[in-house]
Structure formats: structure tokens, C-alpha cells
Specification:
The complex is a heterotrimer of chains A (479), B (666) and C (100). Chain A is mainly α and 479 residues long. Chain A contains 19 helices and two strands. Chain B is mostly helical and 666 residues long. Helices cover 70% and strands 3% of the residues of chain B. Chain C is mainly α. Chain C has a single domain, classed as Helix Hairpins (Orthogonal Bundle), CATH 1.10.287.3510. The chains are: A mainly alpha (479), B mainly alpha (666), C mainly alpha (100). Chains in contact: A-B, A-C, B-C. Chains A and B meet through helix 6, helix 8, helix 9, helix 11 and helix 13 of A and strand 1, helix 5, helix 6, helix 26 and helix 27 of B.
Chain lengths: 479, 666, 100
């Protein structure tokens, strides 16, 4: 076995090593000593980014279970970007709120390891293991403020339901294994393509169970109920991380399994996902309207976004597959920035995550209010932001495959969603601040990170073709 | 060069948005106006270059970059200047510049940072509007379409301390979103049907196909687009937002809600003339909706007492004329009316702004009167605008309105022509009612502090004024007066650009526009009619022209008789027909009907749902019709989220059972 | 030899018992145990399928699943302790501060 056997996992190794180093450094840390743990984490993440870029177009594989095709690398770059941004935003907050820095960064890195492996996995067993690696780390991150009753409650709900849903997923994998005799995605694809399986109850049960398992991680109705609670209870920066990273990884694995191995059965599962996508888009937006807690509002918004993403899978055509990737990139940047703003404005004592806390933000934090406006416009799908192109792309895929109603529902729900995004804008620009204390100023490094992220959102909205080309090229090697 | 036209205002926006609050007022306002004037100059230069080309080939385009390219469908960010968009950019940058200059004086009471905020929105608006008209395909147009809606929303709510302003901005936004939704669906359908979103390519494809006689794809696409247009251009049934939009600063009403944004729907139909012509069914609907809106809004305008609301309903009514023209296939006439209307309606709004400014934010015409002597510049310019809109020759409105009405008749819609003529009577009447009540007779305003209170309620920034007596009334300051005079000259003369053949002219305006309304392959002049036909056409046009002039004069005379000679007639009429008067005063109770049929039931549901749920208050800012509708549903649905981890698990399990059940029993 | 269907029915029944346990029982620790039952039901399915097909994959997967289950149990019990410290209760209905 030469070194090339390890090529596909080099990015994962980079992040794993960084995680281990952070953990070790923390254990040797003296009580009051300050260590640049965030910097260590950044080194690992940037190393992984470089590795991903170098692996581009090489289609490396390792151990017959891990692939580094462009599809996986594209999603991994999204995940790594999310990771880097989260670390940048966390620097100041971790210290200010007295979070256990070593554990925080190590868990962040291990979660990223799980996400990356999940995207790269070509074997269902590895998908499951990676999913658990990611999930367990994220469960703990959710409850990282262990003295906070709400944080612990959120972590417990997420954990219990997550374990519950993993059991469904695993059961589905067991049935697929039973029918095809293998857990390898290629092997399953060959068997499914060779014989008509449409009437086989076992494989249909497997599909249903896989939809439950992935649907849970992605957060679609009716498997979404954990997410508003977990998103609200977790620290805002962790919420930003898990609402994007977890969703991106789970969505990518979901799409890979359903659009490659199970693609021959698209007529069986597409109607199910059609229905799931439709109610997800509707429920996510409608319930979001009544929310007054910003984190919860964005949680429902990200449920609705999961619905839009599913539209891409249902459409199942070339445009749809590329659209999923583009949408993930746009969504990840936007949501990370949105939650980061909430997190940066809040402190342990004053979370500042209620709608009313944003009254008159334009007068106290003009730059932050401006950035938040662009983020919200992107979430609402306004041109010329990334969100608009992403939605346009997803829905043109749906229309291209003849799913007119799905596109209509999607547009209608995005019309409604604008209502609650704009409520925040109204609060920031058109409402006088009441007697509440003004939030603290925000660290310069975090502001710089936000500015870059928002610039990227605008870049994806104004000059999306490069990224769209990349996305289109990434799927061509896989599906 | 072309891209410089929208980019200049955008640069102005960037500067004012990022550091405007630190600049002195003169700098931020001056910068915003300067970029507009610069943009206007570039526009003139570009249109000059366009005019130098031979008539059939007048088109300049500039591809800035490829916006979206995936597989076989490519969308470029391309600006295209053709005769139609040339007219539009001149109106937008020209009148836009004037309104910017006017605003520097009108908004002088605002604080520095509010002043900069105002100008940054205004510049951003112009940027999006230019994007809308210069875009060569539906998607670029849509960016502008959404953007102008957003800016209009921000500007209507500019005085956010006023609750009415906040409500009005939300109403405008939501109604517009309904229209935008139809617009994007129409765009998607067009993409699926034609495989492209480029206006010219679509026109080329459509021209090669026979027009639809029954309801088909073209009809559906155009109908969806038209619904979008009714939202943006305030036509039945989506017109309700425009009168409320008058809560914004008056120059904004002039720029956005009279001269430019609201005409986007008309422009969009003109841009896709070939497509709409292939769908005669939709065209008929457009014409009927336009005519109905025209007369409907015209009747409402007669009974309104707020000076800006009269003008707002007048705008709705005039937009109805434009749609009528589009619907009967007289695209050139519709755009001509858009062009002249931009001048006199901007003039009227700015004139009303000067009145409001002079009276310290008094808007009720029942408290005005006799201002002729005190506001001479405002009076004379306002009078010119009124004569122009009433359609008295030789001012601008005469030529364009006459052309619209003539083509309505000539193309076989005699009934709609009658509606148009009645509206013309109404127009003259309500405009001169406004003139007479505002400027003639005795001053009816408060002499002391009572009125000041009302004025303060309307606008906090006026607080330092201790009340306006008759003596403190002053005419428009220089920056405003110059703009009024320029617009008055425009309102008087721009009509001569389109003197019809019947009056010995050549209708240069129509000929200039013609290439924009035919498919690229079919460029050429309008088919030459035989001499005999031409003669009878001219005779008919002269006859109709005489009728409309008489009608306009009759309307003015009526207003004179009722509101100047014997004001008691108006009161007696109101007393004699209290029902009719109340109906008109209350705008046919349309808002109330919406409220009773849609809002109230859902509101009740929401109340019960909330009551059963908990004592959660929907945030006070969210009191809004559509908001409450969805809000009620939302308040009920959120209860599913009980907080109990066991019920979440049950829902996950149920989901699994439903999917398995579907597979079993399908 | 016992036919495959027997194993599948048994594991299905176990899985159902576990599932029902999660949303019927009123003790957090029992909820954790119910999830464990579900995972073990799946393990049984893997082993049964593996045996039927004459490959060892099924059994190998089971080992991985057991490891994951152990890790999950560690995190789960840690969270239970943190929860109990806050409210002195093991009733899942006591933890509904986050809702709607």
C-alpha cells in the first residue's frame, strides 16, 4: 500500500490532527495561561482547504470507502469555510463567555471531521460512523454552556432525538444490506440497477427509513421538531455552525445516496420527497412568522431552506444537482453570518436574541445593521444576493423537471418568508430603541470576518457563474 | 458607457450610505444630485449616439458579464439601449435629477444622518430603476423590479415615527410582493417555453409563431406578467397600496409613485409588445382593467380632501389610461402618455409639496384656499400642470391622451373609448377642484396654534415651528422654484414631440418608438395605409380630438361652477346624495371589504389561537393585514412544537409510518 | 436451521418496542435504554442478514454499532446528570422550557 492510498483522507487527517493537538495543548495548559487554541484550529482547517484544492480533479479514493471526488471536495470546502468562519467569530466570544476553549475547538474540529467523512464516504457503514462522529460532537457543543439550563435541555433533546433517528437510519442500512448483500454505494447501485426492485417491500422500507434518518439531520418536516429547540438553546455561534455544517454534510450524503445508488428508483421515492419538501417549505415559513426570538426565527427559516434544498433532489436533473451544491454554498455563508451577528451581539448575561433587542440597531451599530440587512435579504431570496441566484436555480431545476407546483409553493413560501425577514429590518432601521441597554461593540476581527462573508454573499449573487461552473463540473464526475 | 448610467447613482448610494452621516448636509445632498445630473448627461450622450444610427438599427448594448451560465441557458447582465429604453432613461435620470435637487431644499429640516439616509435610498432607487429599464432580459429586469419595490418600501416608511407610514410601507410591500410572485412565475414559464429570457430572442421566436386565439401558453405567461404589472403599477385589484404610499416624503411620491416606478408595469408590457400582441386575450384584459381603473380611481379622486391623495388617485387613473393604450395595441401612445405624465405629475406632486412645505405639513385642502397670491410660483406652475393633465391643447397631456383615446376608438373599442372620455371629464374636474380649493377663494386654515398641533402630529421634525399663521406662509425656496419652473416648461412643450398627423405633425415620438414594438426581424416602418384610409382616419381623429377638448373644458367649467362660483352646490350635492358621497369619500369601501372578507376572520382565528396558547403578544410592529393572516395560522401551527421530547419522537415516528404506509398502499 | 424471517420479525418487534419506549415512557434513563434497544434490534437484523448471505460483514458492522452506542451512552448519561443537577427531576416533561 503506497502513500497514494491515503490521498483521499489527507484533508480529514489535517483536521483530525489539529483537533488532537488542541486537545493535548489544553491538557497541558496552566490554569490562567492563555493559548492560541483558535489559531491552532485555523491552521488545521486551512491545511485541509489546501489539501482539498490540491486534490481537485484527481478523483482519489482510499480504502474502498472514501472518495475525494469533486463533489465531495466542493462540499468539504463549504464545510471548511463554515468551520474557519466559526473559529474566527468564536475567538472573542469563547473568552468573553468563559467557555472551555480546548473542548470547544476540539469538538468543533471533530465535528468537521465527521462531516467531511460523511460527504466523502462511499460505504453506508462509513456514512453512519461519520454521521455519529459529527453528531456526538455537535450534541456536546450544543450543551457546551453546561451551567445553562436551556443549553442542556437543548443538547438533551437534540441528543435523544438524534440517537432515535440514527436508529431508523441504521435500520434502513440493514435492510439495504439484506437486499443487496453489500453496504457499498456502488455495489448497491449495481444491484438496484440490474433488477427491478419497485415491488420489493424490503427496499421500499429501507428507502423510507433512510428518508427518516437523513430527513432528521437535514431538519425537514415532520422530523424537524428538534431543530428550533436546539438552535435556540445552543450558543448562537454553535447554532450557526450546526445549522450549516450539519445540514450541508447530511444533504450531500443524502443526495449522493439517493441520486446515485438509488437513482433507478426515483419514481418510487420522488413523490415522497415531493410531499416532504412541500410541507417543509410551507410549515417552515408559516411558523417562522410568529416567532419573536431571532434564533428561533432563523431556525424555522433554515427548516424552510432544507425544503428548498430537497426540491433540488426531487428535480433530480443536472441543473438540480448543481443547484443543490450552489444552494448549500449560498445558504452556508448566509446562515453562518446571520447567527454570528446574533452571537456577537449577545453575551452570556444578555443574550440579545429577541426581536425587540434589534430595535434601532442602525443607530448603535450601523455597520452590523447594514451587514445583517444583506444577510436577511439573501435569506429571503432578494436579488442581487446569493440567496436569489440559489433559489432561482433550484426552482428552474424544478420547473425543468415538470414540478410546477413545487416551484409555485416554493415561491409563495419565499414571498411569505420575506415578511419576517423584513420585520427584523424594520426593527433595525425604523424603530426607536426602548430602555434596554445597548449591546457591546463587536471585536474588530469578527467584524472583518463578517464583512468578508457578506462580500462573498454579494459576490455569489452578482458574479455567480464561476461557482456555478464549479458546481456543475463537480457533479459531472459523480452522478 | 452604458453601464455608467446606473453605476453613477449606485456610487452615490455607496458614499451616502457608508459615510453620509458624517458629511454635512450640503455635501451629501449635493453629491446625490451631482451623480444624478452626471448620469443624465451620460444618458443624453448615449441617446444622441443612438439617434445617429439609422432608424431600423437603433440599439446599443453592453454585456457587463455573464451572470448565470448553466448548460444550455445563459443569462448575461446586459444593458440594451433602444428607442423605448432611451425614453425611459431620459425620464428617470432627467426628472430624477430635478427631484433630487428639489429634495435638497424640501428635506432641509431633517438631521444630517436622516438626510443622508434619505438620499442614499433615493440614489439606490434610481439605480434599480435604471437596471429595470436597461436590462436586456427578464432576470435583470426582475432585479430592478424587486429593488425598486424595496426602495419604495424604505422611502414610504421614511418617517417611521408615524404609525401610518409604517403601515403604509408594509402594505405597499406585501401587495407588491404578490405581484412580483406572479411576475417571477411568468418569467419561469417564459424560460421553459422559449428556453431564453432575452427580450429580443423571445420576440423573435414569438413573431415566428401565429398569435393565439384561445387561451394558451402565451396568454398564461402574459397574464402572469400583467398581474405583476398591476402590483407595481397600481391597477385593479392591486392598486390599494399607492394612495397609502403618500405617507412618504412628497418628492418621493413625485419620483417613485408618480413619474417612474409605477410606470414599470407599462414599460414591461411595451418591452414585450410582440409577446403581448400574440396573446390577444390578455391584451383585452389589459385594456379593460386599464379603463376600469381609470374611471374608478377618477371618481374616487373627486371626493378626497388630502391634496396628495387626490394626486395619488389621479396617478392610478392616468396609469389606467396607459394600460388602456397598451391593451388596445397602441404601445407608442401608451409610452407617450407615460412620458408626458411623468412631467406634469412630477410637477403637480412637487407643487403640492411646495404647498405642504409652505403650510408646514398641512395636507387637507379644506384648510387651504387663497394661496394664489402668497405662492405665485407654485400657483402658476401647478396651474400649468393641471391644464396639461386635463388635456387642454396645446399642453403635453392633450397630445398623449388624445392619441390614447383615438387608438382606443380606432382599434374598435368604442365602449372603452366612452369610459376614457368620461374619465377625461373626471380628470379635469378633480384637478380643477384641487386648484380652486387650494389657491382660490379665502384662506380657510387655522389662524393660530390649533392647526399647528395637527401639523406636528403629522411630522415630528416640524416641531420647532410654533404654528403657522397666514403670515408665515412663504413661497418655494429657489431650489424648489427652479425645479417647478423647469417641469412646467416641460409639461407645456413635450407634447409637441408627438404632434399627430391630424394636426399636420409627424408623430416623431411614435416613429421613434416603433422599432421597439416589433420583432427584430421585422424592423421597418408601419405599413403605409392607402391615401383614402388615411384621410378618413385623420377626419375621425380630428372629430375625437374636438370631443375630448370640449369634455376637458366642460370638466374645468364644472369645477369652476361648483367650487368657485357656488361652493354651496358641492355641499348640497353631498347632502342630497349622502350615500354616493360617502361611497366616494370612503374609496368604495374596498379597504373595508378586504378587511371584512379576509383579514377579520383570520384575525379572529389568530386571537383565539393566541388566547388558547398563551399570553404571547404578536410583536406590536406586526399589525398588518397579510401579516396577521399568516400570523394567525402561524400562531396555531407553532403549538405543535410542545417542547416535550416525547412528542417530538412521536412525530418522527408518525412521519416514518406515513411514508411506509404510502409505499404499502399506493 | 431457523429461517431468516423469524429473526426479522423478532428484530422488528424489538425495534417497535424500543420506538414505543421513547415516546411512551416517562423517565429519561428509560428513554436512553429504549434507544439502546432499537440499536440492538438493528444489530440483530445485521447479524441475521450477514448469516443468511454467508458473509461476516453483518457481524463486523455490529461491532461498530456497539462502539457507537457506547459513545452515545456516555454523552447521554453525561447530559442526564447535567439535567438532573438543574431540576432534580428525571421526567422528560420537566424539560420543556424551549418550545413554540
Amino acid at each position: 500500500m503506497g502513500t497514494s492510498a491515503f490521498d483521499a483522507v489527507i484533508p480529514v487527517i489535517c483536521v483530525t490532527l489539529a483537533g488532537l493537538v488542541v486537545l493535548l495543548a489544553e491538557s497541558f495548559r496552566k490554569k490562567q495561561e492563555r493559548m492560541p487554541l483558535g489559531g491552532l484550529a485555523l491552521i488545521g482547517l486551512i491545511g485541509a482547504v489546501i489539501a482539498c484544492v490540491l486534490l481537485w480533479d484527481r478523483n482519489a479514493t482510499s480504502f474502498g470507502m472514501v472518495t475525494a471526488d469533486n463533489y465531495a471536495l466542493f462540499v468539504n470546502l463549504i464545510i471548511l469555510t463554515v468551520g474557519i468562519l466559526t473559529v474566527v467569530f468564536s475567538q472573542h466570544t469563547v473568552e468573553r463567555d468563559g467557555l472551555p476553549a480546548g473542548e470547544y475547538y476540539a469538538l468543533l474540529l471533530f465535528a468537521i471531521v465527521g462531516m467531511m467523512l460523511m460527504v466523502q464516504a462511499t460505504d453506508l457503514l462509513l456514512v453512519f460512523l461519520a454521521l455519529e462522529t459529527m453528531s456526538i460532537a455537535v450534541y456536546v457543543l450544543t450543551g457546551i454552556r453546561f451551567n445553562d439550563a436551556r443549553g442542556t435541555e437543548a443538547a438533551f433533546k437534540y441528543f435523544l432525538l438524534g440517537a432515535f433517528a440514527s436508529a431508523f437510519l441504521l435500520y434502513g442500512i440493514a435492510f439495504l444490506f439484506g437486499v443487496t448483500g453489500t453496504t457499498s454505494l456502488d455495489g448497491i447501485g449495481t444491484v438496484v440497477a440490474a433488477q427491478s426492485m419497485s415491488g420489493n417491500p424490503m427496499i421500499l422500507a429501507a428507502i423510507a427509513l433512510l428518508i427518516v434518518g437523513f430527513g432528521f439531520k437535514v431538519g425537514v418536516v415532520p422530523f424537524h421538531q428538534w431543530s428550533p429547540d436546539a438552535y435556540e438553546g445552543a450558543p448562537a455561534l454553535v447554532t450557526g455552525f450546526m445549522s450549516t455544517g450539519v445540514k450541508a454534510a447530511a444533504m450531500a450524503a443524502f443526495a449522493r445516496i439517493f441520486l446515485s445508488s438509488l437513482e433507478p428508483m426515483i419514481t418510487d421515492w420522488a413523490p415522497v420527497l415531493w410531499g416532504v419538501a412541500a410541507i417543509t417549505m410551507i410549515l417552515g415559513t408559516v411558523v417562522g412568522v410568529a416567532q419573536t426570538n431571532l434564533k428561533r426565527m432563523l431556525a424555522y427559516s433554515s427548516i424552510a431552506h432544507a425544503g428548498y434544498l430537497l426540491v433540488g433532489i426531487v428535480a433530480g436533473n443536472e441543473v438540480g444537482k448543481a443547484a443543490i451544491l450552489f444552494y448549500l454554498a449560498a445558504y452556508a455563508l448566509t446562515n453562518v453570518a446571520g447567527f454570528a451577528i446574533i452571537g456577537l451581539l449577545g453575551t452570556k448575561a444578555a443574550p440579545n436574541d429577541d426581536l425587540r433587542d434589534y430595535a434601532g440597531l442602525w443607530h448603535t451599530h450601523p455597520a452590523l445593521a447594514g451587514l445583517m440587512t444583506i444577510v436577511l435579504l439573501s435569506l429571503g431570496g432578494f436579488p442581487p444576493t446569493a440567496g436569489f441566484i440559489a433559489k432561482w436555480y433550484i426552482f428552474s431545476a424544478a420547473v425543468g423537471s415538470g414540478y410546477y407546483w413545487l416551484a409555485i409553493i416554493g415561491f409563495l413560501s419565499s414571498v411569505v418568508s420575506v415578511f419576517f425577514y423584513l420585520r427584523i429590518v424594520v426593527m433595525m432601521f425604523m424603530t426607536e430603541r426602548d430602555a434596554r441597554p445597548v449591546p457591546l461593540p463587536v471585536a474588530a476581527s469578527a467584524m472583518a470576518g463578517l464583512a468578508v462573508t457578506v462580500a462573498a454573499i454579494l459576490y455569489l449573487g452578482i458574479l455567480p457563474s464561476r461557482v456555478i461552473d464549479l458546481a456543475a463540473a463537480s457533479i459531472s464526475t459523480v452522478f | 458607457m452604458l453601464s455608467l448610467i446606473p453605476l453613477l447613482p449606485f456610487a452615490g448610494f455607496l458614499v451616502n450610505a457608508s459615510m453620509g452621516r458624517r458629511l454635512p448636509k450640503a455635501a451629501s445632498g449635493g453629491l446625490a444630485s451631482a451623480v444624478m445630473v452626471a448620469s443624465f448627461l451620460v444618458a443624453v450622450q448615449q441617446v444622441w449616439a443612438l439617434a445617429a444610427l439609422p432608424a431600423g438599427e437603433r440599439a446599443l448594448s453592453q454585456t457587463v458579464f455573464t451572470w448565470i451560465a448553466s448548460g444550455d441557458f445563459v443569462i448575461d447582465l446586459t444593458f440594451r439601449l433602444d428607442p423605448l429604453s432611451a425614453v425611459m432613461i431620459l425620464v428617470i435620470t432627467g426628472i430624477g435629477s430635478l427631484i433630487h435637487i428639489y429634495s435638497t431644499a424640501y428635506m432641509h429640516e431633517e438631521t444630517g444622518s436622516e438626510f443622508a439616509r434619505y438620499f442614499s435610498y433615493l440614489n439606490l432607487f434610481v439605480f434599480f430603476m435604471l437596471l429595470l429599464v436597461l436590462g436586456s432580459n427578464f432576470l435583470v429586469m426582475f432585479v430592478g423590479w424587486e429593488g425598486v419595490g424595496l426602495c419604495s418600501y424604505l422611502l414610504i416608511g421614511f418617517y417611521y415615527t408615524k404609525k401610518a407610514a409604517g403601515d403604509a410601507s408594509k402594505k405597499a410591500f406585501i401587495v407588491n410582493r404578490i405581484g412580483d410572485y406572479a411576475f417571477i412565475l411568468g418569467t419561469l414559464l417564459a424560460l421553459v417555453t422559449f428556453g431564453t429570457l432575452d427580450f429580443q430572442q423571445i420576440a423573435g421566436q414569438v413573431a415566428a409563431m401565429p398569435p393565439e386565439v384561445t387561451f394558451g401558453t402565451f396568454s398564461l405567461i402574459t397574464l402572469l406578467l400583467f398581474i405583476g404589472a398591476t402590483g407595481k403599477s397600481a391597477q385593479i385589484p392591486l392598486y390599494t397600496w399607492l394612495p397609502d404610499a403618500m405617507e412618504g416624503p412628497t418628492p418621493v411620491s413625485a419620483l417613485i409613485h408618480a413619474a417612474t416606478m409605477v410606470t414599470a408595469g407599462v414599460y414591461m408590457i411595451g418591452r414585450n409588445a410582440v409577446l403581448f400582441e400574440a396573446a390577444p386575450l390578455t391584451l383585452t384584459i389589459v385594456a379593460v382593467v386599464g379603463a376600469l381603473t381609470a374611471i374608478f380611481a377618477g371618481t374616487i379622486a373627486i371626493a378626497q380632501n388630502d391634496i396628495k391623495r387626490v394626486l395619488a388617485y389621479s396617478t392610478v387613473s392616468q396609469l389606467g389610461y396607459m394600460f388602456l393604450a397598451m391593451g388596445v395595441g397602441a404601445f407608442g401612445a401608451g409610452i407617450f402618455h407615460l412620458f408626458t405624465h411623468a412631467f406634469f405629475k412630477a410637477l403637480l406632486f412637487l407643487g403640492s409639496g411646495a404647498v405642504i412645505h409652505a403650510l408646514h405639513h398641512e395636507q387637507d385642502i379644506r384648510h387651504m384656499g387663497g394661496l394664489k397670491a402668497k405662492l405665485p410660483v407654485t400657483y402658476w406652475t401647478f396651474l400649468i400642470g393641471s391644464i396639461a393633465i386635463a388635456g387642454v391643447p396645446p399642453l403635453a397631456g392633450f397630445f398623449s391622451k388624445d392619441e390614447v383615446l383615438f387608438y382606443t376608438f380606432y382599434n374598435g373599442h368604442q365602449l372603452l373609448w366612452v369610459v376614457g372620455v368620461i374619465t377625461s371629464l373626471l380628470t379635469a374636474t378633480y384637478m380643477f377642484r384641487l386648484v380652486f380649493l387650494t389657491f382660490h377663494g379665502e384662506y380657510r386654515g387655522p389662524q393660530s396654534a390649533q392647526g399647528a398641533q395637527r401639523a406636528h402630529g403629522a411630522h415630528g421634525a416640524a416641531a420647532e415651528h410654533s404654528g403657522h399663521s397666514e403670515h408665515s406662509v412663504h413661497d418655494a425656496p429657489p431650489a424648489m422654484a427652479v425645479v417647478l419652473i423647469l417641469l412646467a416648461i416641460g409639461s407645456a412643450v413635450v407634447g409637441f414631440l408627438g404632434v399627430p398627423h391630424a394636426l399636420g405633425g409627424h408623430n416623431q415620438f411614435g416613429e421613434w418608438l416603433h422599432p421597439s414594438f416589433v420583432a427584430p426581424a421585422a424592423h421597418g416602418m408601419a405599413e403605409a395605409a392607402s391615401a383614402a384610409d388615411e384621410a378618413s382616419k385623420i377626419a375621425l381623429e380630428r372629430l375625437l380630438m374636438a370631443i375630448s377638448v370640449l369634455v376637458a373644458l366642460a370638466g374645468i367649467a364644472l369645477a369652476f361652477g361648483v367650487w368657485v362660483r357656488r361652493p354651496e352646490i358641492a355641499d348640497r350635492a353631498a347632502a342630497q346624495f349622502p350615500g354616493v358621497h360617502r361611497l366616494l369619500l370612503n374609496k368604495y369601501y374596498v379597504d373595508e371589504a378586504y378587511d371584512a372578507a379576509v383579514v377579520q376572520p383570520i384575525h379572529r382565528l389568530s386571537q383565539d389561537g393566541l388566547w388558547r396558547a398563551m399570553d404571547v403578544k404578536v410583536v406590536d410592529g406586526a399589525v398588518n393585514a397579510a401579516g396577521q393572516a399568516v400570523g394567525g395560522l402561524s400562531a396555531v401551527l407553532r403549538l405543535v412544537q410542545t417542547g416535550s421530547v416525547r412528542s417530538y419522537a412521536a412525530s418522527t415516528f408518525l412521519g416514518a409510518v406515513v411514508i411506509l404506509g404510502y409505499f404499502l398502499w399506493r | 436451521m431457523i429461517p431468516l424471517s423469524y429473526y426479522l420479525v423478532l428484530s422488528g418487534a424489538l425495534f417497535a418496542i424500543g420506538t414505543a419506549g421513547v415516546f411512551l415512557r416517562r423517565n429519561i434513563i428509560t428513554l436512553l435504554l429504549s434507544v439502546e434497544i432499537m440499536l440492538n434490534a438493528v444489530n440483530l437484523t445485521f447479524v441475521a442478514f450477514g448469516r443468511q448471505q454467508g458473509v461476516v460483514d453483518g457481524q463486523i458492522i455490529t461491532f461498530f454499532v456497539m462502539t457507537v452506542a457506547a459513545a452515545e451512552a456516555a454523552v447521554g448519561l453525561g447530559l442526564v446528570i447535567a439535567l438532573f443537577r438543574g431540576r432534580e427531576s428525571l421526567n422528560p416533561e420537566a424539560f420543556t422550557a424551549l418550545k413554540w
